[in-house]
User: What shape does this take?
Amino acid sequence: MIPLWMYLVVAAGLFVIGMFGVLSRRNAIAILMGIELMLNAVNVNLVAFWRYQTPTKLSGQAFAAFVFAVAAAEAAVGLALIIGIYRRKRSVIADDVNLLKW
Amino acid sequence: MELTLFVIVGAIALLSAVMMLISENAVYSALFLILNFAAIAFFYLMLDAGFLAMVQLAVYAGAIMVLFLFVIMLLGADPVRHTTPRKLRWLPKAAMVLAVIFLLTASVAIIRGDVGAVGGVAPTLTADGQPLSFGSPAHIGWLLFTRYVLPLEIVALLLLVAMVGAIVLTRDSVGKRPPVVRRLANPPAELERPIVGESGQS
Amino acid sequence: MFTVPSLSDLNLAATLPATLLALGASVLLVLDLFVPKGRKALTAWLALAVLGVSLIVALLSLGDVVDLGTGEGAFFGLYIADSFTDAVSVIVLVTAMLGVAVAYNYLERTGMQRGEYYVLLLFSALGAMLMGAAGDLVTVFVALELLSIPLYILSGFRWRDEGSEESALKYFILGAFASGFLVYGIALIYGATGTTAFGGIWAATRDLLAADAATKYVLLLGAGMVLAGLGFKVAAVPFHMWTPDVYQGAPTSVVAYMSVAAKVGGFAALVRVLAWGLPDFVLSGQSAAAWQSTVWLIAALTMILGNVVAVAQNNLKRLLAYSSIAHAGYILIAVAAMGTAGVANEAARAVVIYLMAYAFTNVGAFAVIVAVERDDGGHTDIDNVRGLAKEQPVLAASMAVFMLSLAGVPLTAGFVGKWFVFKAGLAADLVPVTVIGVLTSAISAYYYLRVIWFMYFEEGEGKAQIAWPLAWGISVAAIGTLILGFFPYLLSDMARGIALAFGG
Assistant: This one.
């Protein structure tokens, strides 16, 4: 049987890759994909915790379902914003929209 | 056996995530992300969450990523250029440092944290010795409509808001034809612009 | 096996303010389709009516005039109906009403008038209210998204405008990034405690600490990530970078509402998570909760950075953005004070009092900028208010009231808020951070008074466009700021019923 920590470490790895993607990619769509990856890593965590810690209560799975829905809503709004910007600038490079000017 | 399977799927998940990150071409990124989501769906199956595995494939790898690909194709997002302006040189490095620090912290907390203390074995029996039944769709649906009915309603409103928002943000202005229709009506202009994968930089 | 609960199990009556708002917003979305273009005043009035009805119910419940089943959970404990919920609802609803009043003329003259604006504003107000009512981390997460996503959309409401669209994208990307952190933190808390309900987390934390289980490291990491996710919402350093650019780029009427609503929602959720879920998360050898030192450190950094950078700003929207960062720092003093057992109730009250004072003052200040701003979105520099007192004496006087209140001068609401926050900080023995708070308040007086100086003592062509709803909004905000300043008991009475459900 696979110990729980293996799932968690893989999930942490995915989360970090997504995080790095958000911080380092310059293409707004790629940044959005990084965010989706982060949310997926969270779901792996939730389901693994559910399976190993509280398998009789399904709350982890229910939470994961909500994360799905929120991810879908975020993707819709994010892509709409990107389309709006692209229309004006003909570019989806985040630098071109001064995104990283902290 | 199971461990071998886990290592293989885990490697696919991590590798496809890394490939998504380093692909210059947005379409490749999206395809690697779909592979990654499929691997995660496999994890869900290994964790006895069949319903979520199904949803992961249908909604995530299916619907959401198709939306991504559709937008990429529609916009013809040029591959990210190699040159980074000088003022931003430090950023990926700083992000890398940050990411490594975070990964170390999380791993240490998780491994030291001793979660799932029972020898790291997932329980298969309930406290009174019955075999566990894992979330059937019926069971999850029942839970969503009873205990979790409030978040369910909020999420319903959230999807409504996202829909309204997507329309508000992309409708150019009242009374004019939306530009997408205009562009499709003028194919020659459309063809002059490089679309994804044609610029040969990937 | 699948028993269906009856409707009375949901305890819908206790959630009446939120339910009414949700219904009203949904109906308004449909009704707006039948409101002809050019008569969107009707939509604005209907939005005000929905908010008003909800506000009256919340006020009645807060004043214990009607008993909606206060103190009980609704929706199986995922919604807590108590005084804190009612107080947060009142603050959010007042902010939203002012936000609608401020927006109408502005949208009209800048050509942004769309019915969806008001509907989205109502939905985000609902999200902020639900964050205050959350009894479970699931509710916190989805309510946060319901608060944030309409705000991302509203930030990008000015079409084909570079600043607005970019600020929306920036806000969206960083906001989604932060909610990723938040939900990862929630997953870790769930893993460490086996539940997402605050009551369960509280009980599990006690067991965990009693057994000295190593799982507490996971809980610590989870709490830290939740803090980061919510810290972003309230614009605390080091998660503040989005604030100045977003505030500058987004339509001013949106900023007037968002600068308060996002803060109220974020702080309400912070209070719920930290004071309801993790008040007893005390590591061995310490006297206060494990998160206290982190929170006061963030508070100190936030106050210092916000106030110092604000001094150098010449754009009024940027100036108020840094000022709003600084104010997040003051409120964080009270949040940190909640970590000391015995002070938690007082500190939670201080948070509510500060937010109420801040709501009137900050919406009012941005409303004045709305009046000064030109149709093209320009003209928001401090130079543009030169000599405003000659042209628009009443407007300038209102702005002076707001600036004095933000600076915390006695007899204004801002002073009362600061007073309670610093008192809570001292009660919790957080002397250094409270001293930093007082010192940085003194710094802040410089840039707030500078605005007043420009309005009254500099020669210039200060011009403003005021129409009726905007004037009402500014008047209500100014009168509210003064009344709360003259009668602090109004605020302390409003917060008196707030008490922690567990521990405390």
Notes: DSSP finds three helices and no strands in chain A.
